[in-house]
Write a structure and sequence with these properties.
- This protein is an alpha+beta fold and about 100 residues long.
- The chain has 2 domains: about 40 residues, no CATH class; about 55 residues, no CATH class.
- It is about 15% helix and about 30% strand.
- It is built from 2 helices and 6 strands; from the N terminus they run βαβββαββ.
- The strands form 3 sheets. The chain has a two-stranded parallel ribbon with strand order 1-2.
- It is extended, with a radius of gyration of 17 Å.
- The two termini are about 25 Å apart.
Length: about 100
């Protein structure tokens, strides 16, 4: 197995199944040295959602998501926190920025 890995994907946009699989590889709150990170392009209109508040009872289906987080805006506001690395892509040295 691997301890830490970066997986670079060309022309691959994140999807729910990919994120669920990544979550299985990186279990939260579990003592583990195994960490997989995906580095890929994201659509400029990509969004994420906050976790919904705890349900207080009542009728109807519980909410699955809460407020929208626009990833492009999030990355712009946290631009100073990005780290850089040099990687070889298609035989050329390229600079990548990541959180």
């Amino acid at each position: 197995m691997f301890n830490k890995a970066l997986l670079f994907l060309d022309r691959y946009f994140l999807s729910i199944p990919a994120l669920k699989r990544l979550n299985q590889l990186n279990p939260l709150n579990q003592p583990s040295n195994t960490h997989m990170h995906i580095v890929t392009k994201a659509k400029t209109n990509a969004v994420a959602y906050e976790h919904p508040p705890a349900r207080k009872g009542g009728r109807g289906r519980p909410r699955k998501k809460d407020s929208v987080v626009k990833l492009k805006e999030l990355f712009q506001t946290h631009a100073s926190e990005f780290e850089t690395a040099t990687v070889t892509l298609y035989g050329k040295e390229e600079m990548v920025h990541y959180l």
